[in-house]
Amino acid sequence: MELMSQFIDLLLHLDKHLLDLTTHYGMWVYGILFLIVFCETGLVVTPFLPGDSLLFVTGTLAGAGLLNPGLLCGVLITAAVLGDSLNYFIGRKFGPAVFKRPDARFFKLAHLHRTQRFYEKHGGKTIIIARFIPVVRTFAPFVAGIGNMRYARFIAYNIIGGIAWVVVFVSAGIYFGNLPWVKNNLTLVILGIIILSIMPGLVEYLRHRLQSAKIRG
Description:
Helix content is 79%, strand content 0%.
């Protein structure tokens, strides 16, 4: 319970935590940010790590002159592309066996099945679209690997999606994060980003449940 409370505090007060990291670790903060984004996109057991909100807050710090915008985007894009690539190869190597395993503490088969449905609907563009949807973002490259999508095709979608995701949210943080209202209500803005991020997945989940209920009825 205490761990969950700490995690929620981390999500809602990313500005304070990242500011502390920037103050205490200097240039090392880029390595920390790389690691967070790499794990969030590259490991199917860590979809709970902050993504969209993290990028927005780093953009806010860049807009305030505490981080270098060019270096920040370069580090985050590299982490996002390499993370998805790792996830793709993990899915290609170990994916089929995952379906035979029961839910683990940090891995839910429901997330995998949900991503499969999303993939069936949007095809290869899922790799790009999923960048903006938490959980699906983490599982999409894994499913692409399971489905043996050609890597040349995957890496093209991967790079486009990684660049778009990072540039959109970091730019939003740079241009809007230091506006007086946003700056004074950054916790609410972070919460809003989290809610908006999970809405597409929630709608898809509810739609699927409704369809299942109609079939059973």
